[in-house]
Task: inverse folding
């Protein structure tokens, strides 16, 4: 991790802090050693007292202190040997998530908040700051033509007319006692039944799915959070290929203290990897092995299919291989299928894991789905889990009292999912047509600008390569380019936020209404022209200096 | 903690497990001692290597192992000395929450779930099992006259006709893009504005409250969970008087790993404590001091006002004293005011902390409110935080991406809160009248049965004393009586679930529609008669044996 160069007084202050941490660690370790000796003495003496509560409390306190000091990272380097490499507060959290370092990131430190409170502020504020800017200053063709255009958050805004019309129909409105009172924390039975039927049909399941194995919570992040909470203890890990959808990482790390171990995919193409960012079992095995060597306990494997932001849709054979890999390594297989109805290229076939006849490890295969992406109603805050394990459904459902959604929303969702006629004849054909058209418009524009991208047939975004606009090609420069986009009032999602290992990639959401998309792409072009111009000027200046 | 007497083979199995845990602990402690020695050697040698990552990982792993073993509780007793007092897995969690022990509680152990997953299953399943029975077999006068009547969950069901009518009006329905898309994670600005206005008015604030200091999440448990997450690190604690509303305890302990330190109030009346269960600053100071002596880091003080389940409404002077106590001890003051509009006795005046002109510690005073209790719409899953600290509002709001509620629900809530005409002229007068009538009906019935209770003028439940039906007067017997109620298809909330320190108290919800209330009280009476009869029979049998 590269570090910003600070002013000398700041560096000195940090050096002192490192010394103090060193002393504290030494002291705490010696105290802990003594406490352990005492505890062992107690254990091996023949007439042991019944209560050891006090000693255990002391031991626990000392261990927490040592852990905190070790985790602060400040004691891992000898202060005298490298006084100029201090580490910022909260840096451990940054490392885990591999978020960008440097000048554009503000570490939050408040004495009023807990350590995790400060980490939450640092990471979430960083992650959501663009979105907050957008909310405060949205583009509107007539009322706010200079407002932000957001092509960085994966939302399908192409069919809101259809959805609004359907949701406004009379059958959607029901207010009755059951909907107003405390519900089953796993979700109302009527909605779980509809979700089971819906997934049976659209995931092409060979047998009807069981509503008792469905859990409904407020959004897929909440589902993921609850799922990893009951599967993993703090410090344990989940494996996932990157680049991938960012918020899951925040959720996992900050609230549940579960680590995400990235399986870094890259754009290099070779004989074994004919496609850029190709996921293979070899890469999974290698990442798992590396993690285990570092002492990580990996409990699960998160696969996104159709993949976001790459747009890859995995073949039946690949899926089977990934499932075998999970089974071989005793990993829970979590498949995020939130884009299952957003495959708009007719030549591409999506296979749900629920469609496979022979699942290698039935009770450890779990699917996350929501209507946020496929129906463009992220504001409904709906997410569902389908798991083959009734035990896991019960455990995740237990957390529903913290992640429930309102009864009236559950009712509307059940009506929506029930209306197959409308979904099959009106919504899906229109949605796919519009996604195709917006995708085509965007890719033609990208081609015109000479921007390389992955051409896929699913999802709401395109994974584009802007490394030619970075000099040097670093994540710092990627963030600078991102900042330039913000200056031009257009938001894209930088690859680093998707934990991409190569700088220069961006996620561009195309499922946006035409006026916004047009204007957004125009602003992107303007920003890139400006960037190009600056790079040229810098090059000229450097050449002249030489 | 008393323990159930099991069959001999089970006891033997548990004994073996205790031996094995003993060996494991001893081994782990010795390994940890060695690891600490190595780490200290590294720290004090003059030429220290820069990276100590591997050693630290090992140290962390060993400490986690020791912690897990210590927390399992199995090693705190010498197995040989007391072979018949084994401790069940997950018992540490039971102790923390002071939940009932014994034969009616099933400890969940699954190798598929994490330790916290098992704890969650154990505690939440226990807490919600009555409610799940009720959901699966609800009383209905005509369709299911033998179904459960639930007088154990605090819900106001008396005004659902009014609320249903209001929510069904035309102005409630709006479907538009903003409501369908990702919202501000702190809640939509239009709703935060209404909440600020609403609380300004009904909490009698001398200055208008700021919508930027409001955070809207999906339920007050979610608000509490998010709040303690950003205020406390795992292992830190919040002080709260008990008996108190149970689910907060589950939330705090299971998801956020924050401990609740009870300030046990009791029914004894003396010169200094003229009221049973009276809260005083002395008791708070004592509990805080005890907790600190045990090495607990207490970060906050949770006060419920109007109190649930006691029904106490604190005077302005008492509030001021509690606030001074919090200030003096650097504690965040969290006031749960969810029953603020449920004060139905006209002689009782509620004072919100937001009404006080001089708050001792402005930025550390936080209020939780929701519409679940006052409006009887728990199914809306709405909870709000008002804090004087913008920083805290931002931090709690950050977790809104896991605890958001749907846009359409937010819209309906904003319309509801806006309609002062309806609230003041229709809803509140009717609600208070009906609460009064139901309270009167219930207390007359209790008097008829000779059951002592606290007579208060707020809330939805009555705190009743059934200790005369327990012999011996223990928590095990309290649970047996509770089970007898279930046999009679009526649910009450036992005092132990509210962390009451005296066995025999129950919380009886009276805000129920008349047919259910009538039938519920009849069943209660039947169950108590049966209990009385059994006690008499047992007494006779014992006398004859002597």
Result:
């Amino acid at each position: 991790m590269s570090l910003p160069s600070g002013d000398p007084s700041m560096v000195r202050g940090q050096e002192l802090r490192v010394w103090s941490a060193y002393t504290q660690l030494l002291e705490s370790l010696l105290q802990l050693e003594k406490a352990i000796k005492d505890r062992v003495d107690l254990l091996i003496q023949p007439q042991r007292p019944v209560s050891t509560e006090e000693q255990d409390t002391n031991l626990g306190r000392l261990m927490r202190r040592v852990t905190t000091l070790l985790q602060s990272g400040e004691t891992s380097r000898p202060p005298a040997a490298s006084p100029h490499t201090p580490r910022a507060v909260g840096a451990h959290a940054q490392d885990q998530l591999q978020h960008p370092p440097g000048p554009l990131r503000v570490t939050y430190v408040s004495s009023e908040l807990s350590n995790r409170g400060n980490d939450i502020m640092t990471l979430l504020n960083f992650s959501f700051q663009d979105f907050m800017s957008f909310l405060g200053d949205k583009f509107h063709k007539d009322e706010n033509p200079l407002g932000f255009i957001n092509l960085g958050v994966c939302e399908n805004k192409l069919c809101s007319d259809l959805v609004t019309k359907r949701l406004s129909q009379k059958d959607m409105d029901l207010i009755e006692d059951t909907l107003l009172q405390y519900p089953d924390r796993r979700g109302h039975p009527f909605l779980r039944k509809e979700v089971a039927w819906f997934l049976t049909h659209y995931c092409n399941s060979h047998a009807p799915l069981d509503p008792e194995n469905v859990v409904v919570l407020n959004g897929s992040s909440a589902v993921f959070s609850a799922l990893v909470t009951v599967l993993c203890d703090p410090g344990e890990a989940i494996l996932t290929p990157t680049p991938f959808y960012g918020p899951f990482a925040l959720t996992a790390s900050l609230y549940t203290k579960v680590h995400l171990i990235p399986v870094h995919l890259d754009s290099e193409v070779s004989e074994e990897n004919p496609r850029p960012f190709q996921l293979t079992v070899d890469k999974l095995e290698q990442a798992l092995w590396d993690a285990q060597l570092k002492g990580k306990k990996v409990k699960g494997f998160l696969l996104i299919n159709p993949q976001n932001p790459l747009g890859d849709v995995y073949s039946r054979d690949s899926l089977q291989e990934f499932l075998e890999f999970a089974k071989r390594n005793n990993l829970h297989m979590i498949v995020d299928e939130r884009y299952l109805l957003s495959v708009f290229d007719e030549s591409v076939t999506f296979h749900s894991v629920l469609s496979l006849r022979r699942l290698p490890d039935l009770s450890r295969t779990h699917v996350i789905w929501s209507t946020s992406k496929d129906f463009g109603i992220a504001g409904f805050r709906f997410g569902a889990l389908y798991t083959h394990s009734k035990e896991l459904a019960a455990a995740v459902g237990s957390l529903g009292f913290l992640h429930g959604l309102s009864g009236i929303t559950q009712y509307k969702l059940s009506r929506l999912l029930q209306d197959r006629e409308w979904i099959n004849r009106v919504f899906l054909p229109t949605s796919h047509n519009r996604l195709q058209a917006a995708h085509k418009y965007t890719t033609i524009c990208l081609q015109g600008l000479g921007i390389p991208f992955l051409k896929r047939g699913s999802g709401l975004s395109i994974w584009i390569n802007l490394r030619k606009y970075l000099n040097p090609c670093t994540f710092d420069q990627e963030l600078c380019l991102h900042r330039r986009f913000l200056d031009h009032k257009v938001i894209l999602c930088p690859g680093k936020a998707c934990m991409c290992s190569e700088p220069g990639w961006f996620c561009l959401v195309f499922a946006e209404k035409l006026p916004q998309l047009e204007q957004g792409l125009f602003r992107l072009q303007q920003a890139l022209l400006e960037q190009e111009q600056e790079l040229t000027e810098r090059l000229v200046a450097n050449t002249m200096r030489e």
Observations:
- Residues 8-125 of chain B form one domain.
- The first helix of chain B runs from residue 8 to 44.
- Chain B is about 45% helix and 10% strand.
